[in-house]
Amino acid sequence: AQKVTQAQTEISVVEKEDVTLDCVYETRDTTYYLFWYKQPPSGELVFLIRRNSFDEQNEISGRYSWNFQKSTSSFNFTITASQVVDSAVYFCALSGSNTGNQFYFGTGTSLTVIP
Amino acid sequence: GAGVSQSPSNKVTEKGKDVELRCDPISGHTALYWYRQSLGQGLEFLIYFQGNSAPDKSGLPSDRFSAERTGGSVSTLTIQRTQQEDSAVYLCASSPGQGAGANVLTFGAGSRLTVL
C-alpha cells in the first residue's frame, strides 16, 4: 500500500520559533520520490522539494531543512526562525516507481505563525 | 503559458446542472492531473493524462465525472448532474513527464465549485 501520514493537523508557533512538520510514508516500491508542497492562504500549491529514495542526504535551503530517514520511513520538514509568511498548509506526498505515476498526498498540516 | 491556468476560478451552480472546468497546463508538459480538495481536506486524485496514453481514471468518484485532454494540451473536467457533495476546489497540475523534473507538479490556482 502507498500511504502518507501527516499526524499533525494544526500547529501554531510564535514568530521566530523553530517548527518541525512530520511526514511518515508507506510504500512497497524500492524506488520512490517524496515531496513537500506549500499551500498558502491564496490557495495555490507550491513545490518545495523532491527527494528520491536513493538519496538520504538531508537538505537545507535557507530557513528550510528536510530530514529523510528510510529507517523510520520519515521525511520531516523543519522551518527555522519561523515567519508569518510561513503560515500555510503543508502537504507531504509520495510517488513510487510502480504506482503508475500517481501521487499520494498526506492530509496536510496547517501551520499558523503568530506575530 | 508561464503557469497552469484554470477556469473558471469560481463556479456556483444548481444541483442537477452540468459543469465544465478547464485546465491549460504549462506548454510542453506531457503529464496532467486533476485533484479534488474538499474544505480542510487533503488532495483526492481524480484522473491522470500522460501524452497519448490512455488516461488513468481510477480516481473518478462516479460516472458523472469525466475528463478529456485535447491535443495533449488543454483538459476539461466535466461533472454531470452535479450534487451538493461535489462542492470542492478542483485542482489541476501538470509536470514535464520526462527529464530531471519529470514528476515535479506545478499546480493551478484551482476552480472552486459550489453546488446549491
Strand/helix succession of chain A: EEEEEEEEEEEE
Structural class of chain A: mainly beta
Interface with most residues: A-B, 20 and 21 residues
Mean pLDDT of chain A: 92
In short, what is this structure?
Chain A is an all-beta fold and 115 residues long.
Describe this structure in words.
The complex is a heterodimer of chains A (115) and B (116). Chain A is mainly β and 115 residues long. Chain A contains no helices and twelve strands. In chain A, the strands form three sheets. In chain A, strands 2, 5, 6, 10, 11 and 12 form a six-stranded mixed beta sheet that branches. In chain A, a hairpin with a 2-residue loop joins β7 and β8 (64-69). The N and C termini of chain A lie far apart (41 Å). With 116 residues, chain B is mostly beta strands. In chain B, 0% of the residues lie in helices and 46% in strands. Chain B has strands at residues 5-7, 10-13, 19-24, 31-37, 43-50, 65-69, 75-79, 88-95, 106-107, 111-115. In chain B, the strands form two sheets. In chain B, strands 2, 4, 5, 8, 9 and 10 form a six-stranded mixed beta sheet that branches. In chain B, strands 1-3-7-6 form a four-stranded antiparallel beta sheet, with no helix packed on it. In chain B, a hairpin with a 5-residue loop joins β4 (31-37) and β5. The N and C termini of chain B lie far apart (33 Å). The relative contact order of chain B is 0.32. The model of chain B has no long low-confidence stretch (mean pLDDT 92). At the A-B interface, β5 and β6 of A face β4, β5, β8 and β9 of B.
